[in-house]
Batch of 2 targets.
Target 1
Amino acid sequence: MRYGTLVLLGCAGALAAQVSPAQAVVPLAVPAAPLGRWTAVPELPGMGRPVDTAAVAARRRALARRIGRGLVLIPAAHERSLERDHAQDNDFRQSDTFFYFTELEARDAWLLLAVAPDSAPATLFLPRRDTVEERWTGIQLGPDAVARLSGVPRVVPVDSLAAYLGVARSRVAGDVYVPLADAPADARRAVELALPGQAIHDAGPLVDSLRLIKDADELRRMRTAIGITVLGHIAAIQAVRPGMWEYQLEAVVEGTFRAQGADRVGYPSFVGSGPNAAILHYDANRRQVKDGELVVIDAGAEWGQYTADVTRTFPVSGRFTPRQKAIYDLVLATQRATFDSVRPGVLVSDLDRIARAYMRAHSGKLCGRQMCDQTMIHAVSHWLGMNVHDPGDYRTPLAPGTVLTLEPGIYLPAESLGVRIEDDVLVTPGGGEWLSGRAPRTTEAIERLAAGEPRPP
Ligand SMILES: [Mn+2]
């Protein structure tokens, strides 16, 4: 993607004071009226979660380095509508891009980065607190709390955003970046109205490329989400009995997620038994599980905006049949062979090829006339992060800090049999690290867990 020539932006008011003195910045007069004043509403101490201010500042600097010069505008998410959207368990989830650069869960906010070659001061634009609304939905993050949490000292009311941008536009012609795919539908229009005729570039690919390498704070969040997820899978393996309903297993998994502090599920939980185990994205979860069948559970908790993506397959009876174990062990060995190839420099397409080659070489007559890899109609891996299918160019070689899934499967609908094993793997300098390895993975470990025996450490 080409970004063309980037021209310096203007910086408004106190924003300009944050730009290095070496920069030739035209001071911009911001109209007084639209700025207004915050209403003096007391803020609850400790509102919002702690922000790793050093991490988010480093991410903003990394984006600024990629851009060189320009204005970056990143909108927060809107509240969802209970009537018009499928809000389900939450009526708000922050935009991933806004969260990446702020770690704030403020709604309807904007982040502005005024990017010059050696500085990129940030300004947060925040909705005014609405004390009437707060009686319905709770105390909102106000400017003091946001400045304290975020480490961004410049917090101004969002209704002054257009004035800020308009003044900048009147003084300096500069290109503007907005993460178009990860922005509310009306965000582009808002920028166009504030800056008529302004070329708007998509910041998405740049942001996505940064998000591919997880920093220490992101990995802490992912380890938390994955740790919670492992407990949910363990609880389901312990709970399953013939005659249960798939939704009851779903309740065990998701109940454990919530009991352990998950914010929500990272994606709809898949609980497929018997014939449903061979359907890839079955999430109705309405069937009664029967003795002798396998259950596939693909479920991940979200914590702190980051999600896990883990799949376990286990027998309703607590014991694998020889046939189920044979299929299971080929999937498991395929996953191990693929994991052994994880290291910096490798491509996801290499892993897919390695998985399929291994499965094919060891198929024998296990899957009848076809080779077992022919039943694996999905990719063996994808990026993981804030989104279960995290964005990012799949031509990017693995590097330390990349997190991806490894999820081979064999699906035999004619036998009402499906097996998928999915784990989350961190790429390290020397190879890979199983992040979800504490969820039992061998047939022996699963049978021990189902039998109520303590798991080996
Ligand atoms: Mn997956």
Note: The chain has a mean pLDDT of 86.
Target 2
Amino acid sequence: MLKIKKGGVHPHDEKESTEHKKIEALPVPSKLFIPLRQHIGEPAVPVVKAGDMVKKGQVVAESPDGRATPVHSSTSGKVAEIGNYMHPLYGLSPCVVIESDGLDEWQENLLTERNWETLSNAEMIDIIFKNGIVGMGGAGFPTHIKLSPPKDKQIDTLIVNGAECEPYLTSDYRMMMEFSDEVIKGTLITMKILNVKTCYIGIEHNKPDAIKLLTEKCKGTPIQIVELETRYPQGAEKMMIKVITGREVPSGKLPMDVGCAVQNIGTLKAITEAVEKNIPLIERVVTVAGKTVKDPKNLMVKLGTPFKEMFEYCGGFIAPNGKIIMGGPMMGMAQVNLESVVIKAASGIVSIADNDVDYQPEKACIRCGRCVEVCTMGLRPNILSILSEKGQHQTAQTDYDLMDCVECGCCYYVCPSRRNIVHYIRQSKAKNAMLRAAAKTGSK
Ligand code: SF4
Ligand code: SF4
């Protein structure tokens, strides 16, 4: 049994540079590079070709299997090419490149007005699929699948993750403040689809305005607001479930195995817009922050926008960068350059100043035990890293619950030997996945 314990760390939240600024719309870039892979699963398959004219919201790539989600054009213009460009997670990857015509015109007859209360669950799930909704908190899991659990899994509780525990990120907070009606309606829609009567929105107590606003607006609904301690990684799914419901997701199991579903703030807003207006997921709120950014902001950005356009809009840089990270500094992904583009799961882009990057070489483990103390999943990160170094990846899985690691980075954060524990853990996970795949196909 996995033992979730308190653990966690308290990095400075660094949110003050953007938390009180209203979301601004980034002007439409002249070129958008829309990745075909913006979800877990197979990449979408292009249904347009170079030279085609497209409108905003038009499908440019279809799901190959009904599980992966379709991809839509974020603006109107001409398809310049289907080519390989920088994806923030996968490096050079296929993208539909759209040259904007500057008009930003919706596809004709796309938008509509619907009352979700008159729709069946099957109709709403189909709408959510067709509008390309995925988990926008970082995982990119297709939402229509999450809303269709197997019949033997009885879900009774919906948890909305408003923790936003990563330093610098404030996009969820700004959405709770500026799109609270959409977030609440998306929550009610999700409750109806999952047929649950209990729902909690968990928000860390460093966001008192959001707690106050949502508490007020949720009066008379079955939604309860839960104030959470500010502590990283409070927003990790298994942590939230434990803290809010007291239930522990067993090792190797999913939230649905303990009757819970967890949804992200941005995803709920997207669900409302899809179900009520038929608006596909073509833009999102992204925090652009970091100590080197001249004027950090939260931007409403079209999917496929290169990061460099966002930094330019924020006044550029005032000091040399050591790293650019998509997501937060604890769990985010370091970028090779600023050509990477915004995808559905990009909650933020954070610059880390060169003099803030820790370039110390890794040393041997001194068995201080700090990583064990902070690991919220109750793991032994020191042992996992050593097993990975020795190539004992399967032992890490069978004897030390490797797969329960949520890659939060708390262990690395406190390690005096600067051991790249998360890197080792990812290596072991990847190695074991390769071994499983090889066993399935019978290859060696
Ligand atoms: S990254 Fe994994 S091992 Fe390290 S503290 Fe987080 S859950 Fe534990
Ligand atoms: S914190 Fe670092 S040095 Fe200490 S036990 Fe963990 S891996 Fe070893």
Note: The two ends are 32 Å apart (CA to CA).
